[in-house]
Amino acid sequence: MELYQLSTTTVLLLLAAFYGGTYFLTTFIKKDQEDTDAFMVSNQRIGFGMGAASMTATWIWAASFYAAATSGYTYGVSGPLHYGLWGALMILFIYPFGRRFRALAPKAHTLGELIHARHGSSSQLILAFSNLLGSIISLMVNFTAAGALVAVLSPLSFQTGIAIAGVGVLSYTLWSGFRASVFTDFAQLVALMGISIVIIPAVLFAMGGPSVMLEGFNNMTLEQTSLFSMDAILNQGAPFFIAVLAYAIGNQTISQRLFAVNKNHIKSTFLTATLGYGAIVIGLGMIGLMALTLGVEPLNGEGNNLIPQMVSTYLSPVFIGLFFILVIGSLSSTADSDLSALSAIVMADVYGKNLAKGKVDPKRMLFIGRMTMVAATMIGIILASYSFDILVMLVFVGALWGAIVFPVIASCYWDRITNAAFTSAVLTGLALFCISRFELLSMTGFTGLLFELLAFIGAGVVIGLMAFGFFGKWAGFVAGTIAALAMTYFATGFLREYTVLLSSLVAYGSSTLVCVVMSLLNKERFDFDLIAQRVGHYDNRNELAEALKNKKSPGNAGLNPARLAKES
Questions:
Q1: What is the 3-state secondary structure (H, E, C) of 133-173?
Q2: Whole-angstrom distance, CA of residue 105 vs CA of residue 534
Q3: d(Cα 172, Cα 130) in Å, to the nearest integer?
Q4: pTM
Q5: Confidence category of residue 560, pLDDT binned at 50, 70, 90
Q6: DSSP for 212-275?
Q7: Which is nearest to 61 in space by CA: 329, 314, 273, 425?
Q8: Which percentage of the chain shows pLDDT scores above 90?
Q9: Cα–Cα distance between 298 and 146 in angstroms, integer?
């Protein structure tokens, strides 16, 4: 079977219309003298609508399409839920902690700045390194998806698709940075929702309607027809659930929006984004379920071909063109967020906190941010062109993010955690993750039992932190203890068979254990008020203008960026 292909001219016109239109939109917000803080977080003034749209569009990336459909095809009825629901909950579970981050560091641009003010450079650089690696991988994945889409649906080559996507995203993000990303996200999400509402029902009715789909349930196994399939829970749902907090803490695109949204709108913004993401991605996963009920075999055995295959088989060229724009829009919205995240990390965490040494030059910082975007785009294009297997890198970053969750969150609430405790906890969690994930030791006998016990602690940590975020300390402690005990009773001697789930939980459990033990040995207390004093803005032109507008003396504003940087 061959997929329908658009002509080269049609694809080039669609790409030119999309990236040209997006660039045109950014000309409305372009400034001759860009503000450094606006370039990174829009001066913390993003409103509810823009914030929710940007959060949703950013989190729907190319993998959301392909992986959600593959999940529906593999696990049946529960598959789309186990991909879309947990991704949506990631957005939901981070906002209680996000409000704490904003309260501690109201002028921060990255989570790394907060950790630098709390612990110093080594802890901050661990977090910054994990953020950089994650964003580069995300950028590479999105460029790869663009190349694959162009190659599948047109005569153009894989490398041509990568190059066009890279240059297109960079062109509209380079000048205004994060402001451009958020502004275009809004338009891209409106297009995404509109096209999704058309594409998904169109495929359903083109294949014969709901009745044909229901008849196709006879083609499914008993596990695939169950909404509570243990196969789906243990292989897809549980690992995703464990990763919820890790991706929320470790991904700068999320924390960047936490620091950019107006603090009064954080809750409403993230609740709305949760619903938007869940609805769209679960709907896309249903296309995989439709393919399963019809007995469709993925082209070349690749699950990633399912959605293009279904669209190409059942829809007209006009709908295929709309689908093409849908995917390009989703991957571009995430790619421009990755560029903005990378530039903010290098500007604030690398230059601002470690290279400038108290002598921050806003213009130089802005130049560094733009050059970071150019370099990151080139790296992303080169890595994507080689079609590297990204699984190992994703696994490594996921483990690193899992190992930093407890140290990062606890550092914002518990005044006894030290830099040594933070660093040791992350390194220990990462090391034990690698041992279990890559089975460097045989997970049998005492070794298997030891790693299972660490994983049970990790399960308690995950549940406890989620409960803590919404209901407070004691609720978190009780929920975490019950979860750990339940896992000990039900999963001893059993969990070691599920390597991905075991190793992810080990990263949480071991890092928490080391962090708690070392912190209990520390008698000193940290004053959290110091964080707000140590994290400030780098460019005070807007605030000086406001001070003048309000007839205040600029000298009283106390906004000198160099002084703020020196204090930190």
A1: HHHHHHHHHHHHHHHHHHHHHCCCCHHHHHHHHHHHHHHHH
A2: 8
A3: 26
A4: 0.85
A5: very low
A6: HHHHGGGGS-HHHH-TT-HHHIIIIIHHHHHHHHHHHHH-HHHHHHHHHB-GGGHHHHHHHHHH
A7: 329
A8: 32
A9: 19
